[in-house]
UniProtKB/TrEMBL annotation:
InterPro entries per record: SH3-like_bac-type
Signal peptide: 1-29
Coiled-coil intervals: none
Domain SH3b span(s) in chain numbering: 69-137
Key words, A-Z: Signal
Protein name per its UniProtKB record: SH3b domain-containing protein
């Protein structure tokens, strides 16, 4: 008891003098108020679309009209060729070609900005520049009907040994179906010509048309 009585007054004296330090428990970190939300990661607004890869637009095939007319290549050297492209313009890639040796081929009766839809020598459908194409005239359907052969003709104005071509229709666009020559003598033909062509019968008996320039009624 004597020791206690001596210690307490000493402690009281030290506390009064400011020499006594009592170790306190470390204070807790200041907590944020509950009404202050925690920082969230930045996100894009809903109305701002995310970046997407560009989508390539499909290449649409150009409309091709019916190939109801006949053409041949012109203004092209025999050693060269005319490009047939996928569409009506130089921006389309070539899909075939045509040459003078290809002769006649089918094409559309009307063009599109200087380009004509047609069939290439390989059979591919495409477009070619109208500046290198010649449209072969097609007679009106009504004149294709053969008139009555009520008149008589003979071949004239031909060199000896030559033959007059008889064609399937009234024009050079039609293929030959037979011939006539001076040795055939007189033969039947239509009494009137259509644009310089007369309906006749060839020496082999096949019906056709011959140029009136080499016929004498």
């Amino acid at each position: 008891m004597a020791i206690v009585k001596r210690i307490i007054p000493a402690l009281t004296l030290c506390a009064t003098a400011g020499l006594l330090m009592i170790a306190a428990a470390p204070a807790r970190a200041a907590a944020k108020p509950r009404d202050e939300p925690a920082a969230a990661p930045a996100v894009k607004p809903i109305d701002e679309p995310a970046a997407v890869a560009p989508v390539a637009k499909p290449v649409l095939e150009p409309y091709r009209p019916p190939l109801s007319c006949t053409y041949q290549v012109v203004k092209v050297r025999p050693s060269s060729f005319l490009n047939v492209r996928q569409g009506p313009g130089l921006r389309y890639r070539p899909v075939g070609e045509l040459t003078v040796a290809d002769g006649r081929f089918a094409g559309a009766c009307s063009g599109s900005h200087g380009w004509v839809a047609l069939k290439s020598s390989s059979g591919r459908i495409g477009w070619a520049s109208a500046g290198y194409l010649y449209r072969i005239p097609t007679p009106h359907p009504s004149v294709v009907r053969r008139p009555a052969l009520s008149c008589t003709y003979r071949v004239a104005n031909l060199r000896r040994g030559s033959h007059l071509q008889v064609r399937q229709g009234p024009g050079l666009a039609y293929k030959p179906v037979g011939t006539l020559d001076q040795a055939d003598g007189r033969f039947a033909g239509a009494c009137s010509a259509w644009r310089g062509w007369v309906a006749v019968t060839s020496s082999s008996g096949r019906p056709g048309w011959a140029s009136s320039r080499y016929l004498q009624k």
